[in-house]
Write a structure and sequence with these properties.
Length: about 120
């Protein structure tokens, strides 16, 4: 089993638990160069809010898009958009990634900006 298969297996377990909670989820995906965050509806059919380091406003604000500083900026941005859309409580879906480094920085920034999870 390789790293990708292991991560996807962990993600599947997480998502099955999240479905039982029946709440919106803050899904995070990271690559070596970028980090993406989106809030997905309770039934999982549509994306309500999204933010990533590929957006021009984030790219211009940071030196590098693959570091903790950019993850913090994306976390604040997605939380601000979610609160503007009327969403205050979400479930955190780390997509099988370890809760460490950029994923943790994004989650902490979203919490500080007002999201509850």
């Amino acid at each position: 089993m390789n790293k990708k298969v292991s991560r996807l297996r962990r993600a599947l377990k997480l998502r099955s638990n999240i479905k039982r909670l029946n709440s919106s989820r803050l899904s995070v995906h990271r690559t070596s160069k970028h980090i993406y965050a989106q809030i997905i509806s309770e039934d999982g059919t549509k994306t309500i809010v999204s933010a990533s380091t590929t957006q021009a406003e984030v790219k211009s604000a940071v030196k590098s898009t693959g570091n903790i500083e950019s993850a913090v900026l994306v976390g604040k941005l997605v939380a601000d958009k979610a609160i503007a859309a009327g969403i205050t409580e979400v479930t955190f879906d780390r997509s099988g990634f370890k809760y460490h480094g950029r994923v943790k920085a994004l989650a902490d920034a979203a919490r500080e900006a007002g999201l509850k999870f």
